[in-house]
Amino acid sequence: MRNQPSKADRERLMERCRGICERCGQLPDFRGLAVHHVGGKGMGGTTRKFYDNDYQLLCGKCHSREHGIKEAE
């Protein structure tokens, strides 16, 4: 099982992105920002330790796109 980011990890990521989606550069909608693992387990991503550069904070729309989920326009 992959380690999940701790509260301190999330706070560090939030400072890095200043509350803005790291993909589209927009403020998030009501869903806020989601922690997205850049190199998922199936793509050779890490499963042992949390590294900031392995994660992005994405808005709901970008996070859905990243996982191939189409949203209603």
Q: What's the helix and strand layout?
A:
Blueprint: H1 7-17, E1 33-37, E2 55-59, H2 60-66
Antiparallel strand pairs: 1-2
Report on this structure.
The protein has about 70 residues and is of the alpha+beta class. It has one domain. Helix content is about 25%, strand content about 15%. It has 2 helices and 2 strands. The N and C termini lie far apart (about 35 Å).
- Average pLDDT works out at 80
Provide the helix percentage: 10-25%
Query: Which class do the helix and strand fractions yield?
Result: alpha+beta
Beta-strand proportion: 5-15%
Radius of gyration: 12 Å
Principal-axis shape: globular
Structurally, how many domains make up the residues? 1
Low-confidence parts, pLDDT < 50 over ≥5 residues?
none
Could you give a short account of the major beta sheet?
Answer: 2 strands, antiparallel
How many DSSP H or I helices? Answer: 2
Distance between the termini: 35 Å
SSE order: HEEH
Q: Strand tally, please?
A: 2
In which order are the strands of the major sheet placed? 1-2
Q: What key attributes describe this structure?
A:
73 residues, alpha+beta, two-stranded antiparallel sheet, 2 helices
Short structural description:
By secondary structure, this protein is an alpha+beta fold. It is built from 2 helices and 2 strands.
